Amino acid sequence: MIESAEAAQAVVAATRYPPAGIRGVGSAFARASRWNRISDYLTTADGAISITVQIESAAGLAELENIAGVEGVDAVFIGPADLAASLGHLGNPQARPVVEAIEGALRSLHGAGVAAGVNAFDPATARRYIAAGASFVLVGADVTLLARGAEALAQTYRNDT
After folding, report:
1. How far apart are alpha carbons 58 and 84 in whole angstroms?
2. Model-level pTM greater than 0.85?
3. What is the pLDDT of residue 39?
4. Peptide bond into 97 cis (omega under 30)
5. Do 110 and 72 contact (CB within 8 A), yes or no?
6. Listing from the earlier edge strand, what are the strands of the sheet with 115-119?
7. Contacts 24+ apart (CB under 8 A), 4-8
8. Looking at the 3D structure of the chain, how many domains does it have?
9. Family assignment (predicted)?
10. pLDDT tens digits for 39-83?
11. How many CA atoms within 13 Å lie on the side-chain side of 27?
């Protein structure tokens, strides 16, 4: 959860090799560099990294423009459930003030040319967020999709008895 430009800067720094950041060079011996088989990995890796920070609080929302303006931040993802809790609507990310806050954030990010994402498991809400400027919308969660698929498969066989 990112709540300030300083926190976003720390994330960016953690993904960049010195002098641009603080990332340890031991990762050059990992899978990303094909176990040190990419000879220029240390000098080119920074260009292949995409940073998406997540805002899930009223404090983060209040700092949205500053966070989105951090050099190296490529996208901002809004987490509706935790944001709802932070805004006083625990368990209700569909509450009007939450949805309106998210739409405002998406419009702001879109206007600033920053990719903006959000999750919305309800089709109508997903469409609202797309209309507000969302660049990407998570419309299903892997664990939920897996659970529903398993339930449907099990139900197929329950009907046989």
Report:
1. 9
2. yes
3. 87
4. no
5. no
6. 52-55, 75-78, 115-119, 136-138
7. 4/59, 4/60, 4/63, 4/66, 4/67, 5/63, 5/66, 5/67, 5/69, 5/70, 7/53, 7/67, 8/53, 8/67, 8/70, 8/73
8. 1
9. Belongs to the HpcH/HpaI aldolase family.
10. 888 888 888 899 999 999 999 999 999 999 999 999 999 999 999
11. 13
> Which residues in 56-135 belong to E strands, given as ranges?
75-78, 115-119
Distance CA 77, CA 54 (A): 5
Cα–Cα dist 79/102, whole Å: 9
pLDDT tens per residue across span 93-143 = 999 999 999 999 999 999 999 999 999 999 999 999 999 999 999 999 999
d(CA 85, CA 79): 10
Range of the domain at 137: 5-158
Over the stretch 113-126, which tens digit does the pLDDT of each residue have? 999 999 999 999 99
Hey, how many other C-beta atoms are within 10 angstroms of the C-beta on 108? 18
Q: How far is CA 144 from the centre of its chain?
A: 18
Q: Could you give the CA distance from residue 34 to residue 45 in angstroms, rounded to a whole number? A: 12
CATH number at residue 149: 3.20.20.60
Q: Hey, is 115 helix, strand or coil?
A: strand
Token pair, residue 93, equals: 């990310």
